[in-house]
From TrEMBL:
Binding site for substrate: T43, E121
Keyword Kinase belongs to the record: yes
Catalytic activity: L-aspartate + ATP = 4-phospho-L-aspartate + ADP
Biological process according to GO: homoserine biosynthetic process; lysine biosynthetic process via diaminopimelate; threonine biosynthetic process
InterPro entries: AceGlu_kinase-like_sf, ACT-like_dom_sf, Asp/Glu/Uridylate_kinase, Asp_kin_monofn, Asp_kinase, AsparK_Bifunc_asparK/hSer_DH
Domain of life: Bacteria
Keywords for the protein's UniProt record, in alphabetical order: Amino-acid biosynthesis, ATP-binding, Kinase, Nucleotide-binding, Transferase
Protein name according to UniProt: Aspartokinase
Transmembrane as UniProt keyword: no
Gene3D superfamilies reported for this sequence: Acetylglutamate kinase-like, Aspartokinase, catalytic domain
């Protein structure tokens, strides 16, 4: 069994859906499982629906309409026969979204989010299922929610592995091509849950783990895992073969091609992961597997933008000790602020953090009771794995260095543009 993950970009319009067909015809699809994401930016559009449901009822209907029109435009282009079943099925799905929004009684934002946002994947796989059938690629549509079971931490659900493995083996027991959704599962009451944004890669790994798949391929709009993000660096190189360990490190520091949780289950069963271009499916791409050289051939650059560099110092020149650091970290945890780099000296303590949920102002008001607090907003954190003599210069040209930290394998630099 091979697992193919098709992300949002690979199915963002009719042309790309047709391309999925071409990819399958090129690489074969017997005994395979497709795990697909929502089309294009659908997840963001459904997030707007949820936001409007709670805070702006006036625009709610319109925001559902946007999602509906986007998908109907795609199926209209893909299916000339307007009597095709796909139109009926799609209408049913949108009716059930409307039904839910009218009848829901739960005030729980995250619960409602998962009930609504999960439709993105249900819709995309429904369209793919019918379109592949049209192309002569027989396939079985599988509802991931009957297989992937989670707890009730809506928007960031944790997988119940034992039940999930058993369910997946039961649901996917054919040599035919199967197609299912990434990102979504269900709790023990059958309510939809999601695994966190960009979670479809992780789903692919979960299915692969349960099925002891021979490989997982993530089809992307880039040729594979590059040593640097081409949006920020010139002269990038493709990493041909890297170890699980290296891929985990790269994902951890923020390389966005692979979702960080994806690699653990694959490594456990030594299932190779390929990252390949859906535009050039015969090219080798990147292979993450056992037996890769311990360090890649080139330095790898990872950038995290929009970071916050905070420096705390004691008001009375006393040392910042274990107790202070422990208190400070409790606060970061409480305010859901992710710490990416730590540096401390006798009387000061600096951290580079990501304040995804805009909680820093509240946190700052607590910190100023005990510390002098200074901070720089909107800084960039560069991480270089396996740096060489030119790495720092490559990053720093035209920028101001705010903090630098180096160990044997990794160099981290915080800059202001
Ligand atoms: N559709 C989800 C998202 O956009 C999951 C994914 O694409 O991996 O976050
Ligand atoms: Mg995606």
């Amino acid at each position: 069994m091979r697992v193919f993950k098709f992300g949002g970009a690979s199915v963002r319009d009719a042309e790309n859906v047709k391309n999925v067909c071409r990819v399958l015809q090129t690489v074969g699809y017997k005994d395979s499982l497709i795990v697909a994401s929502a089309m294009g930016k659908t997840t963001n559009a459904l997030e707007v629906v949820v936001h409007n449901y709670f805070q702006n009822r006036f625009d709610l209907a319109e925001s559902v309409e946007v999602v509906k029109k986007y998908h109907f435009d795609i199926v209209n282009e893909l299916f000339t026969d307007k009597e095709h079943q796909v139109f009926v099925r799609l209408k049913e799905l949108f009716d059930s979204i409307t039904y839910f929004l009218l009848n829901n009684k739960s005030p729980n934002y995250n619960f409602v989010y998962d009930q609504i946002v999960s439709y993105g994947e249900i819709i995309s796989t429904t369209i793919l299922h019918f379109y592949l059938q049209e192309c002569g690629i027989t396939n079985k549509w599988i509802d991931a929610r009957n297989a992937l079971k989670t707890d009730t931490v809506y928007r960031d659900a944790n997988v119940n592995w034992d039940i999930t493995v058993e369910n997946i083996k039961r649901e996917i027991n054919t040599d035919d091509l199967c197609i299912t959704q990434g990102f979504i599962g269900s709790d023990y009451n059958g309510f939809s849950t999601t695994l966190g944004r960009e979670g479809s890669d992780y789903s692919a790994a979960i299915f692969a783990y349960a099925l002891e798949a021979q490989s997982v391929t993530i089809w992307k709009d880039v040729p594979g895992v590059l040593n640097a993000d081409p949006r920020y660096f010139e002269d990038t190189t493709l990493l041909q073969h890297i170890s699980y360990q290296e891929a985990i490190e790269l994902a951890f520091y923020g390389a966005s091609v692979i979702h960080p949780k994806t690699l653990q289950p694959l490594r456990q069963k030594e299932i190779p992961l390929y990252v390949k271009s859906f535009l050039n499916p015969t090219l080798a791409g990147t292979n993450v597997s056992k037996g890769a050289p311990l360090t890649p051939q080139v330095p790898c650059f990872i950038v995290k933008k929009n970071q916050l560099l905070i420096s705390l110092s004691s008001k009375d020149f006393s040392f910042i000790m274990e107790q202070n650091i422990s208190d400070i970290f409790k606060l970061f945890c409480e305010y859901n602020i992710k710490v990416n780099v730590i540096q401390n000296s006798a009387i000061s303590f600096s951290v580079c953090v990501e304040d995804k949920f805009n909680h820093f102002e509240d946190l700052r008001l607590r910190l100023v009771n005990d510390y002098k607090v200074s901070y720089n907003e909107n800084v960039s954190l560069y991480t270089v794995r396996h740096f060489d003599n030119n790495s720092a210069e490559r990053i720093l040209t035209g920028k101001t260095l705010l903090l630098k930290q180096v160990n044997r394998e990794t160099m981290q630099i915080v800059t202001k543009e």
